[in-house]
Design a protein that fits this description.
Blueprint lengths: L10 E4 L5 H12 L3 E5 L4 H15 L3 E4 L6 H15 L4 E4 L14 H29 L2 E6 L12 H20 L5 E8 L5 H14 L3 H12 L8 H12 L10 E4 L7
Parallel strand pairs: 1-2, 1-4, 2-3, 4-5, 5-6, 6-7
Helix pairs in contact: 1-8, 3-4, 4-5, 6-7
The structure holds nicotinamide-adenine-dinucleotide (NAD).
The site of nicotinamide-adenine-dinucleotide has 26 residues, from helix 1, helix 4 and helix 6.
């Protein structure tokens, strides 16, 4: 669909790219020629191995950073290290996220604070720090990994749903502020995706119903999704790549579901 080196000369920062969706997105961007800042909670030896894996496999330059982005300082550290290495960031993917489920009256305050800071405030910090240089260069792509929970709610996910609705709103505002500056800002809203983040929910169902992990997973998925299968992380990588292409230059402020029909109902 696109030239194999479509992103040659560009540099991407993907938060939470040590696993799951972020890893898949970083892989697709690197495969297309982008230098990549890999980021996530991983020790320095594992992070160094990940950096080498990317450089050898894709022939691009990479940096690994493990800043805890639950604070403004952590986000500033991540951005400063990225700029020190590469000078500029052209593509920002705000992907890092966590989950916790409980009824609102039992929701631990510390979990609420952590989800809001990691799943929402981090995107505010990285965006405010990186968008000025994208504006100056007249080109930028900001992709926020929201969720179907940015569009609709589910039980027991007060913090997650609030954060994801928040990031959809942030996406729209930053898109409007940059509509004449060559910088597009979009949210991707996945349904169920096969990653560590949701494996515990699949396992809990399997344990409750005394069935296999695969049966537990299918049971959870079909409660919400007409399509009874999880999206592979690589498909989200392809969607991110499309948003970085010239073909997507006029898509901005949008929230794109990739959700097996979840939000069509
Ligand atoms: P994952 O658990 O596989 O990856 C999460 C990443 O975030 C990891 O790299 C982790 O190290 C990083 N991270 C978490 N807390 C951090 C912190 N405090 N500081 C730095 N890094 C931190 O999860 P995933 O499923 O790939 O989720 C990625 C994003 O996609 C999240 O925002 C999630 O809400 C969203 N999402 C996932 C699904 C799904 O079904 N898996 C569905 C919709 C949306």
């Amino acid at each position: 669909m696109f030239a194999s080196n479509m992103l040659a000369g560009k540099t991407a920062l993907v938060t939470g790219s040590t696993s799951g969706i972020g890893y898949a997105m970083a892989s697709k961007l690197a495969e297309s020629g982008a230098n990549v800042v890999l980021h996530g909670l991983m020790d320095s030896a594992e992070g160094e191995a990940l950096r080498q894996e990317f450089e050898q496999k894709y022939g691009v330059q990479c940096l690994f950073n493990s800043a805890d982005i639950s604070t403004a300082d952590g986000n500033e550290e991540l951005v400063a290290a990225s700029l020190e290495k590469f000078g500029e960031i052209d593509i920002l993917i705000n992907n890092a996220g966590i989950q916790f489920t409980a009824p609102v009256e039992d929701f631990p305050v510390a979990k609420w604070d952590a989800i809001i800071s990691i799943n929402l405030s981090s995107a505010f910090h990285t965006t405010r720090l990186l968008v000025p240089s994208m504006q100056q260069r007249g080109w930028g792509r900001i992709i926020n990994i929201a969720s179907v929970h940015g569009l609709v709610a589910s039980l027991n996910k007060a913090a997650y749903v609030a954060a994801k609705h928040g990031i959809v709103g942030l996406t729209k505002v930053v898109a409007l502020e940059n509509a004449d500056k060559g910088v597009t800002v979009n949210a991707i809203c996945p349904g169920w995706v096969d990653t560590d983040l949701v494996a515990a929910q699949f396992q809990a169902r399997a344990d409750r119903d005394e069935v296999s992990f695969e049966e537990g997973k299918r049971s959870v998925i079909v409660e919400k999704q007409p399509m009874p299968k999880a999206t592979p992380p690589s498909s989200l990588g392809d969607l991110a790549l499309f948003l970085c292409s010239d073909a997507a230059a006029t898509i901005t402020g949008s929230s794109l579901p990739m959700d097996g029909g979840w939000t069509a109902q």
